[in-house]
Amino acid sequence: MIVTLKLAPGAAVSEAELSQSLGIGRTPIREALQRLARESLVAILPRRGVIVSEINLTKQLKLLEVRREIERLIARSAARRATDEERARLRELAERFEKSAKANDDVTFMRTDREFNTLCSAASHNEFAALAMGLMHSLSRRFWYIHYKQSADMPLTAKLHADIARAIASGDEERAAKASDKLLDVIGKFTRGTTDI
Predict the structure, then answer these.
(1) Range of the domain at 149
(2) pTM of the predicted model, to two decimals?
């Protein structure tokens, strides 16, 4: 709900309202909100409630600095350690990325991207890198969702994801790292292009 802006930046939310609208007890809602606070997606303000975090361009750019390094590590590690099954799935995802690029299908791209991120983290077989990326992907995905229609080149982004998937699937660590850097270059340009900085 936060990533897709059903809960907008700056919106106040309450455990009771979320519990009622989602049909989930308050204890799991409270635990989810605490996790979202650790991921910087909400701020819990004592005696004032829970606020969906604002989007801050400067923080987003800092996040991309860290994301670049960890994504490169994950791409290299996955190229080296992925199982045959993971490599086959990456080839399938590369084809889905290509199809979404040709059709300019942002919904398929977003679903494929989420699956791709999860698979790459798993294929790296490095739980610490995977944990760090999980935190960054939620923040990055929300920023993308807010701005992609105004300034992103979704077909190019999908093709760059396909390049990473194929490089990892082939076991080429250097090509995977370079493809990852190329994607982050485009994401950085997109991020800076959302405002006049």
Answers:
(1) 57-192
(2) 0.81
